[in-house]
Request: fold
Amino acid sequence: VQALASSPHLGRLEALALHDSNLEPEGMRVLAGSPRFGGLTSLSLSFGLTTGSRWPGDEGCEELASSPHLRNLTTLRLSEGAVSDRGLQALVAPHNVSGLTRLGLSHNNFTDKGVRSLAASAHLSGLRGLSLDGNVIGDASATAIASSPNLARLATLDLGERVGDVGAEALAASASLRGLRTLMLGGQDLTDRGVRALASSPN
Reply:
């Protein structure tokens, strides 16, 4: 990452994807602190760290959130990075995220508490796509998203496999999600009751 961050040839780079990377918090700090990445509109990071490495997690989110160089992002994906509620709360708080239209946070460690912070963030009002699958979230997250006026522009929503009937009913009754075109959820807690609510929704 240091080599990328210091390269004089990447000033026009608009998209960066590093999959199964070994980026630790220090690497995230280098990435977030480099003006070479100021033109990025899309950043996609997934992590496959080896034994003994430090997951970027919350520290990595805090570095991205405080970066003065990543304010042009419209797409941000952070997968398998051990992000908890603390990291998610830090990520959605600053103005840096106000340009995002796509946010993917699959397979991390945050809970309904973190999603409530996300749903309450006025800086995310431009989001069109949101992926939260693979986290410890359920009906409370679905309800928070369904009741949030900040997420009214969502067209695609993936909540994973822990949402049950209560969450499905909240999504079905939402006045804010009438533009939703793709919804992904499931799991053992979703029964015919929840499916009927979704099927009968005017949304």
Observations:
- The chain is about 35% helix and 15% strand.
